[in-house]
């Protein structure tokens, strides 16, 4: 039976400070906060009790660009958010959770450091078109969304043999050609390094009080076309569609090329899309099985990368304690 995977996680929105201003973003704030260590540890404890295996860290890019966050980090004696993140990842491992961090555009050396305590890293490409950074376009005020920078990060992950998650955001004003161009760019890098473990095909959702609050969401037809195109361009890739952003239609994507439902949390919200509740895992299982497919839990590092030993020694014991002979979470 064909297997569909998901990861049971806790979502940690470490800080909503960000140097970028994407026109669709409802997450970043001009008056940001940063979670303290006790707050994060509380989530680890609750997640562990509920059987979560992944700690997903997401935060705005270069949050130290905000004076308030910089001051807070200094007060806690951290010189950067990545130094703080490293310690939180170590805490997560002690609680039995495998970190996956989305740290934005960072340097190769920083990625190397984070890979010591992360099962995988991630960065959405969003789209590889420079046009989306021009005046009046969604990434006009987001220096970190320049495709060249993001492609460089994805490439550096390959050089470092870091299992990597990336993806595209559909419906932000891009053309069909730009979607295909983005998927081909991802393929090109993956052909060289073989390190991309999954591609997320994410549908844009308008957020209140943002410049794109009245923009239309991509249609189901468009999303299905993109998923099919991704499957064609990358026949062996894991393709993920977030079920909480497609609550009534996610099943259809499984029949059109998607084979992963991403991180699903029994205790924390999707803080980037707080209006979109996660489906219940039991319900996901039943609905997947009605398609003749089998739903299995995976770790934030996919089985193919566990087999290749693409993880740090610090993670070995924990990874091995969770998996069966196929590299999926023991049932
Ligand atoms: S979408 Fe991400 S990068 Fe863009 S402003 Fe929001 S937090 Fe920053």
Walk me through this protein's architecture.
- This protein is of the alpha/beta class and 331 residues long.
- It has one domain: TIM Barrel (Alpha-Beta Barrel), CATH 3.20.20.70.
- 36% of the residues lie in helices and 15% in strands.
- The protein contains 11 helices and 9 strands.
- Helix 5 runs parallel beside helix 6.
- The chain is globular, with a radius of gyration of 19 Å.
- The chain starts with a strand and ends in a 9-residue tail after the last helix.
- The mean pLDDT is 97.
- The structure holds iron/sulfur cluster.
- The site of iron/sulfur cluster (SF4) has 11 residues, from loops.
- The site of iron/sulfur cluster has 11 residues, from loops.
What are the key terms here?
TIM Barrel, 11 helices, 331 residues, globular, binds iron/sulfur cluster, 9-stranded parallel β-sheet, alpha/beta
């Amino acid at each position: 039976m064909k297997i569909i995977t998901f990861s049971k996680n806790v979502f940690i929105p470490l800080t909503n400070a960000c140097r970028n201003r994407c026109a669709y973003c409802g997450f970043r704030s001009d008056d940001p906060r940063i979670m303290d260590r006790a707050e994060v540890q509380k989530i680890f404890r609750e997640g562990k009790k509920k059987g979560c295996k992944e700690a997903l860290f997401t935060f705005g890019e270069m949050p130290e660009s905000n004076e308030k966050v910089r001051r807070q980090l200094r007060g806690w004696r951290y010189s950067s958010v990545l130094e703080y993140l490293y310690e939180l990842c170590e805490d997560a491992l002690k609680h039995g959770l495998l970190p996956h961090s989305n740290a934005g555009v960072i340097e190769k050396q920083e990625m190397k450091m984070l890979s010591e305590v992360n099962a995988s890293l991630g960065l959405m490409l969003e789209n590889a078109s420079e046009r989306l950074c021009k005046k009046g376009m969604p990434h006009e005020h987001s220096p970190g969304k320049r495709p060249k920078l993001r492609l460089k990060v994805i490439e550096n992950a390959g050089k470092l043999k870091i299992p990597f998650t990336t993806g595209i955001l559909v419906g932000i004003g891009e053309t069909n050609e730009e979607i295909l161009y983005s998927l081909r760019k991802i393929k090109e890098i993956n052909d060289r390094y073989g390190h991309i473990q999954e591609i997320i095909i994410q549908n844009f959702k308008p957020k209140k009080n943002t410049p794109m609050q009245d923009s239309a969401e991509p249609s189901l037809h468009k999303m299905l076309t993109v998923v099919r195109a991704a499957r064609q361009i990358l026949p062996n890739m894991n393709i993920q569609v977030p079920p909480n952003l497609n609550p009534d239609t996610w099943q259809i994507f499984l029949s059109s090329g998607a084979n992963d439902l991403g991180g699903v949390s029994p205790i924390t919200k999707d803080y980037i899309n707080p209006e979109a509740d996660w489906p219940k895992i039991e319900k996901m299982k039943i609905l997947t099985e009605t398609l003749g497919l089998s739903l299995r839990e995976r770790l934030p590092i996919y089985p193919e990368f566990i087999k290749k030993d693409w993880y740090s020694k610090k993670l070995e014991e924990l990874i091995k304690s969770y998996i069966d002979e196929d590299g999926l979470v023991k049932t």
